[in-house]
Amino acid sequence: MSKKKSMTDEERTALVQRLQDDIEDFVAERSKKAQETGAVGDDGKSVDDIIQELQNHPAFLKEVDWSKPLSPEMEALMAIKYESENPKARAESYREEGNELFKKKDYRTAIANYTEGIKSKSPDRLQNAVLYTNRAAAHYHLDSENKELLEIKLKAEKAKRLQERDERKQAFKDRKEDEATLKLLNVIKDRKIQLVSSTNRRNCSSFPKSADQLGPLHPSGASVRLDEKGCLHWPVLLLYPEYAQTDFIQNFCENSTFEDHLVQMFGPDTEPPPWDIEHKHT
C-alpha cells in the first residue's frame, strides 16, 4: 500500500486560498439571493430569522429568563439534566443550579432549586446539609432585601407625610394671612384712608387694593397692621432735614397723637439727642 504524499507549503497555501475563495463565493451568492428574494434559505427565512432562532435555541442560550415560560426544548433539556435515577446526582444538579442563581442574586429561584434538591432525598447527609444551609442563606438574603425595600418604602411614606403636613401648615398660614390682609384692606377702605405714591404725589391717591401697597416700606420690615381691637398701627418716619437726621416709629396707633410720641421723644424727662445742640426740640 503506497503512502500518501505529504503536501508542500506551497500546496497548503494554495489549498487554503482555494477554500477561502469557495467560502467567499458561497457567501456572495447567498447575499445576492437574499437581496433579490429577501431570504437565504430554501424555507424562505431571512438572516435575522435564522440568527434569532439560533439565539433562542437552548444549545446557544447564555442565560435563561426564569420569569418567562420555558420553551419545549428547554424543558426537555431540564428534564434530561434533573430527571436522573440517581438521587444524589439529581440533588447535586439542583444544588449547582441554585448556586449559580445565588451568585446572580436571584434568591427566590435559588430557593426553589435548593428545595427541589432536598426533595430528591439524596442518601448523602452532608449534601443534604449543604442544600439546607444554602437555602437558609438564600432566605436570609431575600428577607434582607425585602426588609431593605420595606425600610425604604416606610421612609419614603414618612417623608411624604411630613411634606404633606408642612404643605397643609403653610396653606393654613397663607390662608390666615390672606384673611388678615383682606380684613386690613377693608378696614382701610371703610375708613376712607387713601394712599399717596412716594414717587408721584399728583393724582396718585387711592384706596389700597393689595398688600403690596401697604409695605413694608422700611428696612425694619414694619408695615401697617390691624390689632385685635381693630386699631390700625402705622409705621411713621420723622424727618429733621436741617440736621440730616430721622426718627422711626414702628407702631403709631391711630388712636394716639403726634404729641404723645413727641413727649416721649423730646419731653423734659428725656435726654436730648446729641444733634439737638441748640435744644430746639427739647
Termini distance?
A: 145 Å
Largest sheet: 3 strands, antiparallel
Mean pLDDT over all positions: 77
- Helix count equals 7
Give me the side-by-side strand order of the main sheet.
1-2-3
Low-confidence stretches: 1-5
The structure class reads mainly alpha
Shape: elongated
Helix content: 40-55%
Radius of gyration computed on alpha carbons: 47 Å
Query: What is the H/E order?
Result: HHHHHHEEEH
GO molecular function: Hsp70 protein binding; Hsp90 protein binding
Domain Cns1/TTC4 wheel: 227-280
Keywords: Repeat, TPR repeat
GO biological process, one term: protein folding
Keywords:
Csn1/TTC4_wheel, 282 residues, mainly alpha, TPR-like_helical_dom_sf, repeat, Serine Threonine Protein Phosphatase 5, Tetratricopeptide repeat, TPR repeat, single chain, 3-stranded antiparallel β-sheet, elongated, Hsp70 protein binding
Outline of this structure?
By secondary structure, the chain is mainly alpha-helical.
Characterization of this structure:
One of its GO terms (biological process) is protein folding. This is Cns1/TTC4 wheel domain-containing protein. Pfam families: Wheel. With 282 residues, the protein is mainly alpha-helical. Among the domains are: 80-145, Alpha Horseshoe (Serine Threonine Protein Phosphatase 5, Tetratricopeptide repeat), CATH 1.25.40; 147-199, no CATH class; 215-281, no CATH class. It is 55% helix and 7% strand. It has seven helices and three strands. The chain has helices at 9-37, 47-56, 72-82, 87-103, 107-119, 125-190, 258-266; strands spanning 225-226, 232-240, 245-253. The chain has a three-stranded antiparallel beta sheet, with helices on one face. Helix 4 (87-103) runs antiparallel to helix 5 and helix 5 packs antiparallel against helix 6. The longest helix has 66 residues, at 125-190. The protein is elongated, with a radius of gyration of 47 Å. Mean pLDDT is 77; it is low at 1-5.
